[in-house]
Amino acid sequence: xxxxxxxxxxxxxxxxxxxxxxxxxxxxxxxxxxxxxxxxxxxxxxxxxxxxxxxxxxxxxxxxxxxxxxxxxxxxxxxxxxxxxxxxxxxxxxxxxxxxxxxxxxxxxxxxxxxxxxxxxxxxxxxxxxxxxxxxxxxxxxxxxxxxxxxxxxxxxxxxxxxxxxxxxxxxxxxxxxxxxxxxxxxxxxxxxxxxxxxxxxxxxxxxxxxxxxxxxxxxxxxx
Amino acid sequence: xxxxxxxxxxxxxxxxxxxxxxxxxxxxxxxxxxxxxxxxxxxxxxxxxxxxxxxxxxxxxxxxxxxxxxxxxxxxxxxxxxxxxxxxxxxxxxxxxxxxxxxxxxxxxxxxxxxxxxxxxxxxxxxxxxxxxxxxxxxxxxxxxxxxxxxxxxxxxxxxxxxxxxxxxxxxxxxxxxxxxxxxxxxxxxxxxxxxxxxxxxxxxxxxxxxxxxxxxxxxxxxxxxxxxxxxxxxxxxxxxxxxxxxxxxx
Lengths: 224, 251
What we know:
The structure holds 2 protein chains of 2 kinds.
Chain A: H1 14-47, H2 52-67, H3 70-85, H4 91-116, H5 120-128, H6 133-163, H7 175-185, H8 193-223
Helix pairs in contact in A: 1-4, 1-6, 1-7, 1-8, 2-4, 3-4, 4-6, 5-6, 6-8, 7-8
Chain B: E1 9-18, E2 21-31, E3 36-40, H1 47-54, E4 62-67, E5 70-71, H2 78-83, E6 86-89, H3 101-111, H4 117-130, H5 146-158, E7 164-168, H6 176-191, E8 195-199, H7 203-209, E9 212-217, E10 220-226, H8 227-232, H9 237-244
Parallel strand pairs in B: 3-8, 3-9, 6-7, 7-8
Antiparallel strand pairs in B: 1-2, 1-4, 4-5, 9-10
Helix pairs in contact in B: 3-4, 3-5, 5-6
């Protein structure tokens, strides 16, 4: 292996630092996902309300979050808010906030779609069997909604994990940033460091997202 | 509990509008215990809406519906109890896709009627055997043919021990070969003394199963006659025209 440059990964505490960087990525995405899912379910239910004000509010929120690039949202939360209101939010807090707002909007839309896709006759036949509203939702509608919801929710999760790489731009040292630091420090001694380091980052991202994708596929098959 | 002096079903002066459309325009109808009544009429005459009103799935604008002497009132607490006396089977396959056949059938008896699991299962077994589907108890609805699904839907409604069964065009979405097996089950039920109110477009079947025919047109009852009499001697021109559409003669 002499001269290939792969040993740069194991110099000093380099590998541990990469894992630490990965943990920052995972921490932000896990927090955001954990908050987005319940909030998104509530938002999705809110979107199915017939009330015109509820419809207008949710539409504006959804479109705003969708149209704005996540990077712009991050800049607004981190730099803009400080400028405008003098609130000095910590970078990681800003990141979790932005990803939660984004995840809630996306999750809400998934929930709305799943609820709407349950045909009316499922409600009718549950009621015709004498079920109350609560029983209809508890035994018939929610179990079917969850089945439809799980695969897209897991896809959203992997998208959120990957998109957290943007937080580098508001100064958070996550896995990609650590990689860049390692490459910069070893530029002269190990000119091929970038290949190995970015390769390692690629594998780490893969290891983080792949099990989630496998789970999605498995559930999709089982619940079809 | 059963009050013999009441008719099983009494509909009087029923009116129902959807927006500006008058769907039911003063319908009167009684079904006595053990009677089989078939509702005929062209599409859009209000047949399905009538059944949905009887089961409280649609609210009523005017008039009243009584099951065994008790008023059907949408949104009232008594409605879920009253619905247990009414079994309903729909046109669309309405089984719950996430539950197997046995669970589809026993869900309401256990959760709504609070019966024991064993007892509900025992009744489900007896009913499933009667329609020849006991072997399919572990299957999911998607693994069944349309005709099998409708037979399960009938069993599911029967397992609540209803006093009247409503059938809303249950064979309309089936392939022709599957129609027979479903109609046979219904015919057997009728012969067993079940009170039934049936909406169908199968004229031969209507003639075979019905004690009485109610002919609906534009939300009104035009004819209400014993079955033979209706088919042999319809009183109104509208009913004659309607029956004509089912006849095919070489020109």
